[in-house]
Design a protein that fits this description.
Helix content: 25-40%
Distance between the termini: 53 Å
Shape: elongated
Radius of gyration: 17 Å
Number of strands: 7
Strand content: 35-45%
Number of helices: 2
Largest sheet: 4 strands, mixed
Strand order of the largest sheet: 6-5-4-7
Length: 113
C-alpha cells in the first residue's frame, strides 16, 4: 500500500515538473532595462525595481526559487520599503551589470564580476 502511495507521488511530481518545463518554454524569463527601471518578467509575474534604489549586485550560486534559469546568478539588493533582494541570471552578466552601473553609478558591483 505504501509503495503505491510513493509511486503516485513520484508520478505526480514528474507530471508537475513536465508542466513547469513547458510553462518556462512558453513564457521565458526576461530582464528589461527601461529608463530607470529594471523589469523582471517570469511567466505571469512582473517585478519592477527602480535602478536608482539598487545598493549592490553580487554573484550568487544560491538555489532559492527565483526568476533565474541558471545556477550562475546575480543577487540584486535594493531599497524599497525595506532592503530586499532578488536573484536573476542574465545571459551576458558583464554587460548587464555595466548597463545598471551606467544608470546608477552608486551601485557597488565589486563582487558581481
Amino acid at each position: 500500500m505504501e509503495s503505491r502511495t510513493l509511486l503516485s507521488w513520484l508520478i505526480t511530481l514528474l507530471i508537475v515538473m513536465g508542466w513547469m518545463a513547458m510553462f518556462l518554454l512558453l513564457f521565458p524569463v526576461k530582464y528589461i532595462i527601461d529608463g530607470d527601471n529594471l523589469l523582471i518578467c517570469c511567466g505571469f509575474q512582473r517585478k519592477r525595481i527602480s535602478i536608482s534604489q539598487i545598493i549592490y549586485v553580487r554573484r550568487s550560486h544560491n538555489l532559492l526559487a527565483s526568476p533565474a534559469l541558471s545556477v550562475d546568478r546575480l543577487e540584486i539588493v535594493f531599497k524599497e520599503k525595506n532592503t530586499d533582494s532578488i536573484l536573476i541570471s542574465p545571459r551576458n552578466r558583464i554587460d548587464f551589470v555595466e548597463d545598471l552601473k551606467a544608470i546608477n553609478p552608486d551601485i557597488d558591483i565589486s563582487k558581481a564580476l
